[in-house]
Design goal:
Blueprint (H helix, E strand, L loop, with lengths): L1 H45 L9 H10 L27 H26 L14 H7 L3 H4 L8 H8 L2 E2 L4 E4 L2 E3 L3 H8 L11 E2 L4 H7 L10 E2 L1 H7 L13 H16 L5 H19 L7 E2 L17 H13 L13 H10 L7 E2 L11 E2 L7 H13 L21 H5 L5 E7 L2 E5 L37 E2 H4 L1 H8 L3 E2 L8 H11 L13 H81 L2 H15 L1
Antiparallel strand pairs: 1-2, 2-3, 4-11, 5-6, 7-8, 9-10, 9-12
Length: about 625
């Protein structure tokens, strides 16, 4: 018995010792990870980061800057990465936030790298004055985007807006109602062309053959992706690798100079080939970017005839891509594509958030006015603060029409774009056919918001795409013929005869309830809120029915009074008629009496006395 007790006590002591040792190891691990993440965050704040998706030499630089321990890869897929947050101990939430901030910082720097890479065609012109690629890009409608300066990304603002996007209504659901980025926003902010032919055509399961023919680049079979490295090498950009200690601006300047030399060749077959390669890089990594480092070729069939590229409504296709990106999974922390658009849209319509810095007023398009301020707080703190600001944003401070004082000077693309403003229309980007439900946002047109039927999920089904392309060869000009006709007819004008927003806001509150609030401070019991609103609606309906009954009774009383008045009027008319008849009869009788009196007087003078007595007697009878 005693031996067994001593054995169990020894086993307990060994177990406690092992637990203390494991606890000590976990504490050391947490401390190392915290110190490591603090070093990384501090270095990110002081040293410009180069994206890990640019080139292979840069990937080595990024890996050297971010030490990898315990089997984690460069994107944070190990125990300390954001994808395995559920596996980390609950005692290190700051490590998770810092890791998320590092990943977002890399994504933002990659976006800035793409912007500078694509902005390298701004200035060069051939000495002989011939049309170079810059002129051709401007004729295609992309010149204004390529003239824009760098802008810092604001992932907190982007994520706050993403969390409020309703995929059914294709609109932001905010406490004061729906808000929707419009074609006018695209045209004025980016300068992209929102008029012309819809961006529609063929999509293929893979673009292997067409890519080899139009780009002259090798591709894997059954793929629609061009390796980014091969595409950059074909433009002479991949050879410019950043060395240790190089300044970011100097490195980007090298990219500018190399790209200018490559794009300044004389027109010809090789120039067309280079221009298509650049356009694929521009469309696949800037306007219609997707996740990953490879460049998709979905729009390559539209680049076969370069002279026709400028006739497409690329701005409308860009807006459709933005809508689709906003409706993607909530796990994504940024939108795909040209990120300054959504940021500047928020700066203009919600200036009270204080997220934009007006640095270059007077330039066009409007995106060139703004930049995003630096914020040293963590992404989680920024997002929490932004959600609270949006939930408590004063309704009267919402700017529905930010362009009232903006003229069209220096913006020739607006002349042909104006007929497309203020209309609900279908947007096309190949297999993306999405509605612009501007009738939900009538206040942006200076109108009162009328009560409208809220849309449900679009019945126009479209297959999704993956990085390997669509599964069938499809001609979207035939499959989406009805929607293309809608675009060619410019959709439907938005009109409103409402004098108040009350009816719309009541329906809006019943549909969304507490879903319009995202901050913890404004979280409400959705079920209780809906029940309260239903009770209020029921009470209002009862009051309306009582008022309708009272109105009906008053109408009946008024009708009876009217009928009685008509009867009195009829009696009065009859009395007046009888009185007139009596007066006529009396006047006739008086005339007859006067005539007979004259006759009797005549007989009295002419006849003998006996007759006179008879006349007197007759007269007496007559007067009687």
């Amino acid at each position: 018995m005693e031996g067994g007790r001593e054995s169990s006590e020894g086993s307990s002591r060994r177990k406690r010792h092992v637990d203390r040792r494991n606890s000590h190891r976990r504490a050391e691990t947490v401390r190392e990870e915290e110190e490591e993440m603090e070093d990384v965050v501090m270095e990110l704040e002081t040293v410009p980061e180069v994206p890990d998706s640019c080139t292979e030499p840069l990937e080595g630089k990024c890996r050297a800057r971010c030490p990898e321990k315990r089997g984690s890869d460069k994107r944070g897929s190990g125990p300390s990465g954001p994808e395995n947050a559920a596996l980390r101990p609950a005692a290190i939430p700051d490590v998770a936030a810092a890791s998320k901030a590092v990943t977002l910082s890399r994504q933002d720097d990659a976006s800035r790298y793409d912007r500078d890479l694509l902005g390298t065609v701004r200035h060069d012109r051939n000495a002989s004055g011939r049309r170079d690629k810059r002129d051709r890009l401007e004729e295609m409608g992309f010149g204004e985007v390529l003239h824009m300066e760098r802008m810092r990304t604001d992932p907190a603002l982007t994520q706050a807006l993403r969390s409020r996007w309703d995929t059914e209504a294709m609109a932001f659901v905010l406490p004061w109602g729906h808000m929707i980025p419009s074609l006018e926003n695209v045209s004025r902010i980016t300068g992209l062309q929102v008029y012309g032919r819809p961006v529609s055509g063929f999509t293929y399961p893979c673009c292997h053959e067409i890519a080899e023919r139009l780009l002259g680049l090798p591709m894997e079979r059954r793929s629609s992706l061009v390796p980014r490295k091969a595409l950059q090498e074909s433009l002479g950009l991949h050879a410019v690798a950043r060395q240790t200690g190089d300044d970011v601006d100097e490195y980007l300047e090298q990219l500018v100079q190399r790209s200018r030399r490559e794009l300044a060749r004389e027109p010809g077959a090789q120039a067309d080939l280079d221009l298509r390669r650049f356009l694929i890089l521009f469309l696949g990594r800037l306007l219609f970017a997707t996740r990953g480092v490879a460049v998709h070729c979905r729009f390559l069939p539209l680049l076969d005839d370069l002279s026709a590229v400028g006739g497409f409504a690329w701005g409308a296709a860009f807006l459709a891509h933005q809508f689709d990106s906003l409706g993607a999974s909530d796990r994504q922390t940024s939108t795909s594509g040209f990120y300054p658009f959504l940021q500047v849209w928020a700066y203009l319509h919600l200036p009270g958030l204080g997220r934009g810095v007006l640095e270059r007023p007077g330039l066009v398009p409007i995106a060139r006015h703004w930049d995003s301020p630096r914020d040293s707080r963590s992404l989680e703190d920024q997002l929490t603060r932004l959600q609270e600001l949006i939930d408590g944003y004063p309704y009267l401070d919402v700017v529905w029409q930010p362009y009232l004082e903006e003229g069209d000077g220096g913006q020739p693309w607006l002349v042909q774009a104006h007929p497309y403003f203020g209309r609900s229309v279908r947007l096309h980007a190949l297999n993306l056919v999405l509605p612009l439900n501007l009738y939900l946002c009538q206040r942006s047109l200076g109108l009162r918001q009328s009560a409208v039927e809220f849309p449900v999920r679009d019945r126009f089904l479209r297959p999704g795409w993956s990085f390997r392309g669509l599964h069938d060869t499809t001609d979207w000009r035939l499959r989406a013929q009805e929607q293309i006709n809608n675009w060619e007819c410019r959709g439907k004008a938005v009109k409103s005869a409402a004098t108040t927003d009350d009816e719309y806001l009541q329906a809006y509150a019943l549909k969304y309830g507490g879903k319009v609030y995202k901050s913890a401070r404004h979280q409400v019991d959705v079920t209780g809120e809906i029940a309260s609103l239903r009770a209020l609606l029921h009470s209002t309906v009862q009051d309306r029915e009582a008022a309708q009954r009272q109105t009906a009774e008053l109408e009946r009383d008024l009708e009876l009074a009217h009928e009685h008045a008509m009867e009195l009027q009829s009696e009065r008319d009859r009395s007046r008629s009888e009185r007139d008849q009596l007066r006529i009869r009396a006047e006739a009788a008086e005339a007859q009496v006067a005539e007979m009196t004259r006759e009797l007087a005549t007989l009295q003078v002419q006849r003998p006395p006996g007759d006179q007595e008879e006349v007197t007697r007759l007269r007496a009878e007559l007067l009687a």
